[in-house]
Design brief:
Radius of gyration: 16 Å
Largest sheet: 6 strands, mixed
CATH class: Alpha Beta
CATH topology: Nucleotidyltransferase, domain 5
Helix content: 25-40%
Length: 141
């Protein structure tokens, strides 16, 4: 898989997006790499679309764990957001080792937001591309 150059990847602000059972928690980083206040939205289609539009307007690239946010990734592709996926097993191992499992979910979202800034963790990110559209036309011959 081809990766974007380092300067192109850091041009947009990273934003960690944690998908809980009934809500979404987004933590964008500012230009200095400091976490901004968490943005919380209900996990409804309308609230999810509004949150993703806000993150697009803010110039954010989102970092998610796919196992928790497959539906959010699909909606992010529809809004033309860049989506990076962190491996579930590694995220959970870091959450266990650092004690984030007993902390608020905004701390886990902040972990995802800082993921691209650490070279040792950034190599594990993979960019998610929108699926190719299905061809509805039958061949003529």
């Amino acid at each position: 898989m081809k990766r974007a150059p380092q300067s192109a990847r850091q041009a947009a602000r990273p934003c960690g997006l944690w998908a809980a059972k009934n809500r979404l928690i987004a933590v964008p980083l500012d230009q200095d790499g400091m976490a901004c206040r968490p943005i919380t939205a209900q996990r409804t289609p309308q609230a999810c679309a509004c949150l993703l539009e806000y993150l697009k307007a803010a110039g954010c690239d989102i970092v998610v764990v796919t196992d928790h946010a497959a539906d959010v990734v699909e909606k992010a592709h529809l809004t033309n957001l860049s989506v990076y996926i962190a491996p579930h097993a590694l995220v959970e191992a870091i959450r266990n080792a650092s004690g984030l499992r007993s902390r608020p979910l905004s701390h886990s979202a902040a972990l995802l937001a800082r993921w691209p800034l650490h070279p040792a963790l950034a190599v594990h990110l993979r960019q998610s591309f929108p699926p190719r559209p299905k061809l509805n036309q039958l061949p003529l011959f």
